[in-house]
Design a protein that fits this description.
By secondary structure, the protein is mainly alpha-helical. The chain has helices at residues 2-22, 38-71, 74-83, 89-122, 130-161, 166-189, 203-214, 251-256, 259-274, 277-300, 303-307, 315-325, 327-355, 360-372, 381-387, 393-400, and strands at residues 196-198, 222-225, 236-239, 246-250. Strands 1-2-4-3 form a four-stranded mixed β-sheet. A hairpin with a 6-residue loop joins β3 and β4 (246-250). The radius of gyration is 23 Å and the shape is globular. Bound molecules: zinc ion. Zinc ion (ZN) binds at residues 268, 272, 345, 348.
């Protein structure tokens, strides 16, 4: 079953990739004629082509590595290794999962280096220096240890000693923990990676505050983020909630867009709040966590799970094997959440178009963002169905124009 799960997940991804490559068109779709100059259009297609092939190669090697490791008895070997010194159970679990995650991260590292310094470099996106890249890796590792290890230890302990309601306790614990991390992230975690500067007074700030007053959405914190430290791509987003809620505009966005366009992008983000998307997404993800822990509790005691991997029965090994078995469920969940997200994006676009003075500014902003990011203008519908959290550009622009 686990083998089938891994293969199905891989096959669906591959099919979507291949269809997407076949859907690349020589001609720009009519309403998008002005997005790219002809040369850039070809470049955007090359970019889609290169990143897709890269994704297929990376996915194939990583999946194959997991299968080879499995059939060569790797899981059993690591299980015996962490078991032999007679350490406390929770420590054994942390070591078992830590070793596996570290191995996987090391395997992934060359791909990450190649993506940043070869592909992104070739298409002119990369601004990351080697030092920044190395520091990011170290900070990521530090965060995984500081934030991840205690949570994992807690989950292992709950399933070890929590009895038959362990999944309920784990569900509650993870929910509270995630909310706490999201609450502190804008203030404690994100500044580790980027610099957030409060926006200076001027035309843009006036326009933003004027708009937010007009829709009765008080924004106290507008920050400009130094996205250009890593890439030329641009974006804008809301982070955190409650007192720590803030809007971050990439410096690249501020540089490349007109005031009206930036207000339109911001209006879209505020639309997500006004339409209660944030809270809905949160509820869906809490429900998903519950489903995950319930299914985990069902499978943890199935001896077959451990026989398949040649290990002793243990909570920590069960956690890892269940995560492999869970892949197809995860795929279905992600297809559903992507579909919900695309509806939300449409609603936020509609909100922005309806509440800004010039509804077409959003369309202009989206076109510029797409051109700047070398977006694929003709994604295959199946690829969109599986992978897209936003509707394709053409659909968004048609919807904004009321077509
Ligand atoms: Zn959005």
């Amino acid at each position: 079953m686990i083998l089938a799960a891994i293969v199905i997940d891989y096959a669906v991804g591959l099919a979507a990739d291949i269809l997407n490559l076949k859907a690349l068109r020589l001609e720009v779709p009519d309403p998008l004629k002005d997005v790219y100059k002809s040369d850039d259009y070809r470049r955007s297609q090359q970019y889609t082509h290169v990143t897709t092939i890269f994704g297929i190669v990376k996915g194939t090697i990583l999946q194959a590595a997991i299968l080879v490791f499995w059939f060569a008895g790797g899981f059993g070997a690591i299980d015996r290794l962490v078991h032999s010194p007679g350490l406390p159970l929770i420590i054994e679990g942390l070591l078992f999962i830590g070793i596996l995650l570290a191995g996987y991260a090391l395997l992934e590292l060359p791909f990450s280096v190649y993506h940043t310094f070869v592909i992104e470099e070739r298409f002119g996106f990369n601004r990351t220096t080697r030092a920044t890249f190395a520091l990011d890796c170290l900070k990521g590792l530090g965060l995984a240890l500081i934030l991840g290890a205690p949570l994992l230890a807690g989950i292992l302990a709950l399933f070890e000693y929590g009895g038959s309601y362990a999944w309920l306790y784990a569900w509650a614990a993870v929910t509270v923990y995630t909310l706490t991390v999201q609450f502190i992230a804008p203030v404690w975690i994100m500044p580790l990676f980027n610099k957030f500067t409060p926006m200076t007074d001027g035309e843009l700030k006036e326009a933003i505050l004027g708009y937010s007053r007009s829709v009765a959405f008080p924004v106290a914190n507008v920050f400009v983020m130094d996205g250009s430290r890593r890439s030329t791509r641009s974006n804008a987003y809301f982070t955190g909630f409650g007192r720590n809620k803030r809007i971050a505009l990439f410096d690249t966005l501020v540089k490349q867009h007109t005031v009206q366009e930036i207000v339109a992008v911001l209006a879209h983000e505020i639309g997500h709040y006004k339409k209660k998307h944030i809270i809905k997404d949160l509820l869906v993800s809490v429900a998903h966590t519950g489903l995950l822990f319930f299914l985990l509790s069902v499978f943890l005691n199935a001896p077959g799970l451990y026989e398949a991997f040649h290990t002793e029965q243990s909570v920590y090994a069960g956690l890892v094997f269940f995560s492999l078995l869970y892949t197809p469920v995860e795929m279905v969940v992600s297809i559903v959440t992507n579909a919900i997200s695309r509806v939300h994006e449409r609603q936020a676009d509609h909100f922005a178009a309806a509440t800004t003075k010039e509804p077409l500014s959003l369309a202009e902003a989206l076109k510029k963002l797409s051109a700047n990011n070398l977006t694929n203008l003709t994604p295959h519908p199946f690829y969109v169905f599986v992978n897209y959290s936003h509707p394709p550009l053409l659909q968004r622009i048609n919807a904004i124009r009321g077509k």
